[in-house]
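User: What would this chain look like folded?
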Amino acid sequence: MLRFGYALLVAVPATLISLDMPSSASASPFDGRWSVMIETDKGTCDRAYRYGLVINNGKVSYAGGNDFEVTGRVTPTGNVHVRVARGPSYADGHGRLGRDSGAGTWKGVGSGQCSGRWLAERR
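Assistant: Here's the prediction, encoded as structure tokens.
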């Protein structure tokens, strides 16, 4: 189900997990739980999804199960790149985070070319 994987870039599940956060000396200003809405503008992917992501020391991960491989980084200035993969298909998202929200675009590669935008908010 590649559509679901593409949408993962912007969507974040309503149920988020808690992680122990590192000390403030090593923490990124963007660390914490985020809700991300992924919207499809082009392609045959589902219209929108919401998912939970966690940022820990600037590293992005999925707050859900093992359905997808989510990798990514947030720079100290808020620039973000995330890749969501499922099997040979993946979607890349780029954008920028602020203190409590962010936005960007995404593009999928695999069976079905989809693209769109994402919106994030801190939880």
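Residues 1-25 have pLDDT under 50 and may be disordered. If you want, I can go into more detail on any region.
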